[in-house]
Amino acid sequence: MTTELRQAITLLQYSAMDLTEYLQEQSLENPLIELKEPLWEQGFYKSTHKHESDVNPLDFVSNEHRTLQDDLLTQIRLLHLVEGDYPIIRYMILLLDENGYFHEDLELVAEKFSVGYEYVEELLKCLQTLDPIGVGARSLGECLYLQLKNNDKIEEIALEIVLNDLELLADKKWKQIVKKYGVSLPYIQTIYDSLKTLNPRPGSSYNTSISNYIVPELAVQEDEGMFSVSFNDQSLPQISVNEKYQGYLKGTKQDDLTKYVADKYQQVMWLQKSIEQRRLTLLKVMITIIEKQPNFFKKGPKYLKPMTLKDVAEETELHESTVSRATTGKYVQTPHGVFELKVFFSSSIPMSQGGDTSSTEVKNELKQLIDDEDKKKPLSDQRLVELLKDKHGFVVSRRTVAKYRDQLKIPASSKRRRYDD
């Protein structure tokens, strides 16, 4: 395999953000490369909005921002501490992880500043009074405890359960909690519901790294019932040759510098060619997807048909692995929202009256059945199998239902049950 072919394959599997990062690295190694950064690098295309109506104008503000540590260091000025306490609490703030948790051993902090363990622990409690609430916690239980403690309506026994038996609470082993604390199941249900309103990662709101961005490289438009696809040229950096080196390319002088420039120029040409080939491959695959999934684009995700990588590979005369690379981590803007290209592929599920449907459609109906169930008597996987067949004609096994439920991040019926009064 040639270096150029290897590069083309590598670029095809990159997402827009990965490719942008790769081009930036190449520009550092090759002085002939000039890049004009894409719009999302300038603060656009933030988040994963499904519909234009969901867009918040604030999402288009540049991602330059204050850090969690910045805000906490500002807040400690308002604490009534003695002068010697500030270096210690500053040190602890700088040790917080990106979610606001404190993982350092307090014994080591005490030793570093030549003070007692209890003294450092009191300073950590001071840190835990700052915003966002829950910051400075040493565990998930303590983080949730700090937030619940801020609620005057929460009783002391509820705080004790969260701090000491969070695992039993999360796993819905509530009868053990009833036996240990002498409380009722409905009471535990209220604690459980309260926990779902809390933030287990209090520092996460400060983390708006570029990894949270989705950049649709393709766009599908409808015009009088016909669909067309275009490539979003603003999704990637624009690459060109640095004009300062053009003279070396035109000259006849054959010294080391001229040879170096010529080699680097050839690398730029191959890079541009590989990027163009990537663009054409994505367009080719997307056109085939539109042809095979017309009802999806006309009516929405509910009308997705079964389609495999092999189906598209045969139509485009590309290798199946090429189609896989071209659809992984690539996004398209459609009249129904932004979707990863992988969404359009799903296995076939037989229907009781003949024909088939997509696994995606089965998952949608499975989720709807669970959303509509009586939470005091949640549906078992076997009952879901029966309802999918009786209501929709989908023929699936209990194992398949369990697999789809796991993929949808829906717990088993025993963990979905509610214990309201």
From TrEMBL:
Domain RNA polymerase sigma factor 54 core-binding as annotated: residue spans: 62-245
Keyword Transferase: yes
Pfam families: Sigma54_AID, Sigma54_CBD, Sigma54_DBD
Keywords for this protein: DNA-binding, DNA-directed RNA polymerase, Nucleotidyltransferase, Sigma factor, Transcription, Transcription regulation, Transferase
PROSITE patterns named in the record: SIGMA54_1, SIGMA54_2, SIGMA54_3
GO MF assignments: DNA binding; DNA-binding transcription activator activity; nucleotidyltransferase activity; sigma factor activity
Signal peptide (residue range): none
GO terms classed as biological process: DNA-templated transcription initiation
Domain of life: Bacteria
Cellular component annotations (GO), alphabetically ordered: DNA-directed RNA polymerase complex
Domain RNA polymerase sigma factor 54 DNA-binding: 259-418
Family: Belongs to the sigma-54 factor family.
Protein name: RNA polymerase sigma-54 factor
Annotated source species: Bacillus solimangrovi
